[in-house]
Amino acid sequence: MSKPTVHVHDFADRLTLADKLSQKIEAQLKKGIAARGHAVLAVSGGSTPKALFALLARTRVDWSKITVTLVDERWVPETSERSNAAMVRNLLLKQNAEKATFLPLYNGAKDPVAGSAELTKAIAALPTPFDVVVLGMGTDGHTASFFPGGDHLAQALDLKGKDTVVAMEANDAGEPRITLTLPRILDTEALFLHFEGEDKRKVFDEARAGGDYPIAAVLSQSKTPVDVYWSP
Ligand code: 6PG
């Protein structure tokens, strides 16, 4: 099997990037709804997607036919400022997007290991493939919760693995986390990697050239093309 394409789209500034990516996602969601009557959008947390979420919330797609979920989550309730679900509710699920169905990953279990069986069922109930997955990236080369040195990293990256969600603890991850696995992430019509800044670009370029970072697993796989959206 040959490598799928990694397309890098560079933008002069972050707002232009957010605008273009939002338009791309909108088109993909419309395509999914036209083809199958519904669409699934899986997004990342962190701070990078905030401007994108604000733009997406205003897009005119039939959000009542869309399920929004997360690629990964810190194992904290939505009252925590660290909650990705809270960020999605506050920025994305507003205005037109208020009508979307939301599947958060944190389910109140005492830890992500305890919560993973129920979450596996909830994820399995979503239509496949997903329509859009948006990944972010950290300066340590993590994406989703695939952290360097993560205790279940190999399991999460196993392309032949059957798991769809995996608990993850790592020194630099803060609290315990839950993450969709790489095979679950790659089962999508469109996969975007969105990151900003020169420091992350350096890490990305190294990973693409074969450097040992978790993001390299996304860039070197042969299943799903990756559209990279970057600005300084
Ligand atoms: C999370 C994420 C994570 C994120 C990167 C980038 O929950 O932290 O989903 O993978 O995308 O850490 O985060 P920033 O956008 O905050 O740099």
Secondary structure: elements and pairs:
Elements (H helix, E strand, L loop, with lengths): L5 E5 L3 H23 L2 E5 L6 H7 L9 E5 L1 E3 L9 H9 L8 E3 L8 H13 L5 E6 L17 H5 L7 E4 L8 E4 L1 H5 L1 E9 L1 H11 L6 H6 L5 E6 L1
Parallel strand pairs: 1-10, 2-3, 2-6, 3-5, 6-9, 9-10
Antiparallel strand pairs: 4-8, 7-8
The structure holds 6-phosphogluconic acid (6PG).
6-phosphogluconic acid (6PG) binds next to strand 4.
Keywords:
single chain; 232 residues; alpha/beta; Rossmann fold; seven-stranded parallel sheet; three-stranded antiparallel sheet; 8 helices; 10 strands; globular; binds 6-phosphogluconic acid
Shape: globular
Strand order of the largest sheet: 1-10-9-6-2-3-5
Helix and strand succession?
Answer: EHEHEEHEHEHEEHEHHE
Name of the CATH architecture: 3-Layer(aba) Sandwich
Q: Kindly report the CATH topology.
A: Rossmann fold
If you compute it from the alpha carbons, what radius of gyration comes out, rounded to the nearest whole angstrom? Answer: 16 Å
Structural class call reads: alpha/beta
| Number of helical stretches of at least 4 residues | 8
How far apart the termini lie comes to: 34 Å
**Into which percent range does the helicity of residues fall?**
25-40%
